[in-house]
Amino acid sequence: DVKVTQSSRYLVKRTGEKVFLECVQDMDHENMFWYRQDPGLGLRLIYFSYDVKMKEKGDIPEGYSVSREKKERFSLILESASTNQTSMYLCASSKAGGGGGYEQYFGPGTRLTVT
Amino acid sequence: GESVGLHLPTLSVQEGDNSIINCAYSNSASDYFIWYKQESGKGPQFIIDIRSNMDKRQGQRVTVLLNKTVKHLSLQIAATQPGDSAVYFCAENRGKAAGNKLTFGGGTRVLVKP
């Protein structure tokens, strides 16, 4: 079974702190994604990566950065956390696409609260 | 902008009845669609997918129907069980030109009444 793990289930940080969210997948997937999930807004793509060292902005990248130094690991960084970044953060991975997309496998999520 | 949406935010269904969850999409270039189930406190789990060259696909107790003419997607759950209570999301793949990114709908909550 594909397994995507996230470093924390719950996290509480103060405004202005630097926050690292870690994600690891064990299926040798090329693609990895970070989403945030807010009530009524569904899942919104923050950043994604097609390969090691590669990253691309999603729909809402402002206030976030990412790092992919190893194929299995994709980190989301909040340089200076703000209260509007309080959310559920979901990591996902998928195989590289050929003629079309592939299903994304999700981690359990990290509930981040910024006070 | 282009988006994936849902008609019903909450669906209450009697145990044993069939459930139908609907989803509208607006991107005619979308070529792949997925339904996910998300239980409380968990990440979304894959249920079933369908490619744009198909109209229907069946899984275990679930069927996905795709109507490209009206850009409509539905998930049918047969003989709904208490364990089916969850939020269901449809997602569309935006196509290779858009980097195969997924766009998710806002979700429909299914509540199964005993």
Structural account:
The complex is a heterodimer of chains A (115) and B (114). Chain A is mainly β and 115 residues long. Chain A is 0% helix and 52% strand. Chain A has no helices and eleven strands. In chain A, strands 2, 4, 5, 6, 9, 10 and 11 form a seven-stranded mixed β-sheet that branches. A four-stranded antiparallel β-sheet of chain A has the order 1-3-8-7, with no helix packed on it. In chain A, a hairpin with a 3-residue loop joins strand 4 (31-38) and strand 5. Chain A starts with a strand and ends with a strand. The relative contact order of chain A is 0.33. The mean pLDDT of chain A is 91. With 114 residues, chain B is mainly β. Residues 1-8 of chain B have low confidence and may be disordered. In chain B, the strands form two sheets. In chain B, strands 2, 4, 5, 9, 10 and 11 form a six-stranded mixed β-sheet that branches. Chain B has a five-stranded antiparallel β-sheet with strand order 1-3-8-7-6, with no helix packed on it. In chain B, 0% of the residues lie in helices and 54% in strands.
